[in-house]
Amino acid sequence: MEDRNLRTVGLVVIGNEVLDGIVLDTNSNWMELRLTALGLEVKRLVSVRDQLDEIGEALRFVCDACDVVITTGGLGPTHDDMTLHAVALALGVETAEHPEAIAIVERQYKNLYERGIVKSPDITPSRRKMARLPLGGVPLDNTVGGAPGVRIDHDGTTIFCLPGVPSELKFIFEDSLVPWLRARIQTNYVESIVEFDINDESVFSPAIDKVMKKYPEVYIKSMPKTYGTTWTLRIWLSARGADSAHLQDQITKAKQYLEDITGIISRPVE
Question: What angle do the packed helices 83-91 and 52-63 form, to 10 degrees?
């Protein structure tokens, strides 16, 4: 295993159906919550259409700033599923049928056929297309659908290509990405969300600025709601670093200092 301390991750969401408003992108939020909890900072999120040049441009933009890049969508059998071809073009490599990938596709369609979900287990050209990976890519098992995920290491960045179907994405993410990421992340993440009995963010803002200057390791973000709908202000405190106990101590002290400055006692948000 290479000696890497992963810190940043970027997401590339691919699909006309997302940008046309037909499909709501819930995948990104689902992954963001889990990636943040693992200790990674989600640095960039880009959505692009099913176009080779758009996918390549987005990939280069995100790879430029992130240790890990995750693409979603475009791994299926149809003509507009072109993610792997676009990734290969962007990286300057060819695509080729991968023996482990075709074995996954064959197993899945045999299983789907036996369950009566598809009418034939035959590996047609469109199904075989899902096993063509960029050279150097490693297939990731998918026991939910037909298309394998893919991991590609390129020039110091690791790219994961996942299907857009949420159930398939979630399986591959938990089964393949989480173990791989945990073995390479040395950063801890700690957060606390509390409420203060005040409804005016503009009045509370100077106190946040003062606390963040005293505790620079702690990021504090106010999360207001529409005026008149609530009399409380939700405050999110978070910190990243090597020592989780130290981070928790800094968050506790920052929260206490915020209470001291404002004269308002906070309460935790469940």
Answer: 60
